[in-house]
């Protein structure tokens, strides 16, 4: 256990289908890599069509997309990796 007052908050144990888990979950040793790039606005808008969100429009009819990769080496629920995507968006008018 790391001795740091940042982690000095009470945790409660909850039963899950995979066993007991302490909440909030503490992450002690992690890494993250983020990539951002422009994509075609119309394709981004099509991917959000069934949501209340619209992509933010940039120059040359572009939208901003991001990829995120996480490596959790030491946390309360054991080591694992995670990936996610996102499009910069706002409430559709």
Account of the 3D structure:
- With 93 residues, the chain is mainly β.
- It has 1 helix and 7 strands; from the N terminus they run E-E-E-H-E-E-E-E.
- The strands form 3 sheets. Strands 3-5-6 form a 3-stranded antiparallel beta sheet.
- A hairpin with a 4-residue loop joins strand 5 and strand 6.
- The longest helix is centred in the middle third of the chain and has 7 residues.
- The radius of gyration is 19 Å and the shape is elongated.
- 3% of the residues are buried.
- The model has no long low-confidence stretch (mean pLDDT 95).
Summarize the structure.
With 93 residues, this protein is mainly beta. Helix content is 8%, strand content 56%. The strands form three sheets. A three-stranded antiparallel β-sheet has the order 3-5-6.
Q: What string gives the helices and strands in order?
A: EEEHEEEE
Strand portion, in percent? over 45%
**What is the mean predicted local confidence, pLDDT?**
95
Distance between the termini: 48 Å
SSE order and pairing:
Layout: E1 12-16, E2 19-23, E3 27-40, H1 41-47, E4 53-55, E5 62-75, E6 80-87, E7 89-91
Antiparallel strand pairs: 1-2, 3-5, 4-7, 5-6
Which labels suit this protein?
93 residues, mainly beta, two-stranded antiparallel ribbon, 8% helix, elongated
């Amino acid at each position: 256990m790391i001795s740091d007052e940042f982690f000095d908050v009470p945790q409660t144990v909850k039963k899950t289908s995979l066993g007991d888990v302490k909440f909030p979950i503490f992450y002690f040793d992690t890494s993250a890599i983020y990539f951002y790039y422009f994509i075609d606005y119309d394709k981004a808008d099509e991917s959000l069509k069934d949501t209340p969100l619209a992509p933010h429009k940039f120059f040359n009819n572009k939208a901003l997309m991001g990829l995120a990769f996480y490596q959790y080496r030491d946390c309360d629920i054991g080591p694992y990796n995670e990936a996610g995507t996102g499009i910069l968006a706002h409430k559709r008018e």
